[in-house]
Amino acid sequence: DADVTQTPRNRITKTGKRIMLECSQTKGHDRMYWYRQDPGLGLRLIYYSFDVKDINKGEISDGYSVSRQAQAKFSLSLESAIPNQTALYFCATMSRGSGRGSYNEQFFGPGTRLTVL
Amino acid sequence: RKEVEQDPGPFNVPEGATVAFNCTYSNSASQSFFWYRQDCRKEPKLLMSVYSSGNEDGRFTAQLNRASQYISLLIRDSKLSDSATYLCVVTLNTGGFKTIFGAGTRLFVKA
C-alpha cells in the first residue's frame, strides 16, 4: 500500500463549486504539505503543517484553506473554485528531521489532477 | 530572480551519453540540497541528496559549489529509463523551515 494517498485522483468541477482534496499518510510523519504544480512553474507551496495544531500559509494560499484533522490526515479545500486553480495538486510528508537537522526527504502522494471549468 | 533556477531543457541525448544539469540558488543561507526525479504525470521522488563533499550513486554524481551557489547532477551512460524531469530542491531555515523546488529540467534519452 502507498505511504501517502490522495483522493480523488482526478476531478472536474465548475467555477464556484467547493472542492475538497484529501491526503492520508501512514509514514507517521509530523510535517505535511500541499503543493500545486503548473507547467513551467514547478511546485509551489500552498499550505503546510508541522503538527495538528500548527498550520501555516505557503506562497500561494489565497483561495485555499486546509484542515489537519489528525497527524495522518491533511485536507485542502477550494471554497469557490476558479479556472486558474486548474492544476496538479500534490500532498507531501516529511519527518521532523534527522540528528543532523538538514537532510530531510519529502514523500509525495500520487497527485490530484483538478480541472475547473 | 527565482530562488532556485534550472535550465528547463529539454535535453535530448542518445543512449550511453553523459549529460549534466546545473541549478543555481539565490540564498546563501541554504542548508540542504537534493535532486528529485519526476516522471510524466507522476509524483516527484528523491533521486539523491547533495553533500558538500559531493556524492555518487551508480551512474549519478551530484556536486555542490557553495561559493558559486550551484549544484550539479551528472548522469553517465544514459539509459532510456532516465528520461524524466529532474528537480533541483533547496532547503533553508531562516525564520522558518522552507523547501524550494526548481521548475525542473526535462531529459529525453533516445535509442
- DSSP strand content of chain B: over 45%
Distance between the termini of chain A: 33 Å
Mean pLDDT of chain A, nearest integer? 91
Largest sheet of chain A: 7 strands, mixed
Determine Rg of chain B (CA atoms, Å): 14 Å
Main β-sheet of chain B: number of strands, strand sense, barrel status? 6 strands, mixed
Q: How would you describe this protein?
A:
The complex is a heterodimer of chains A (117) and B (111). Chain A has 117 residues and is mostly beta strands. In chain A, 0% of the residues lie in helices and 56% in strands. Chain A is built from no helices and eleven strands. Chain A has strands spanning 4-7, 10-13, 19-25, 31-38, 42-51, 54-57, 65-70, 73-78, 87-94, 106-108, 112-116. In chain A, the strands form two sheets. In chain A, strands 2, 4, 5, 6, 9, 10 and 11 form a seven-stranded mixed sheet that branches. Chain A has a four-stranded antiparallel sheet with strand order 1-3-8-7, with no helix packed on it. In chain A, a hairpin with a 2-residue loop joins strand 5 and strand 6 (54-57). The termini of chain A are far apart. Chain B is mostly beta strands and 111 residues long. Helix content of chain B is 0%, strand content 57%. Chain B has no helices and eleven strands. Chain B has strands spanning 4-6, 11-14, 19-25, 32-38, 45-50, 55-57, 60-65, 70-75, 84-93, 97-101, 105-110. In chain B, strands 2, 4, 5, 9, 10 and 11 form a six-stranded mixed sheet that branches. Chain B has a five-stranded antiparallel sheet with strand order 1-3-8-7-6, with no helix packed on it. In chain B, a hairpin with a 3-residue loop joins strand 9 (84-93) and strand 10. The radius of gyration of chain B is 14 Å and the shape is globular. Chain A binds chain B through residues 33, 35, 40-43, 45, 56, 88, 90, 94, 102-106, 108-111, 113, and chain B through 8, 31-32, 34, 41-46, 49, 87, 91, 96, 99, 101-104.
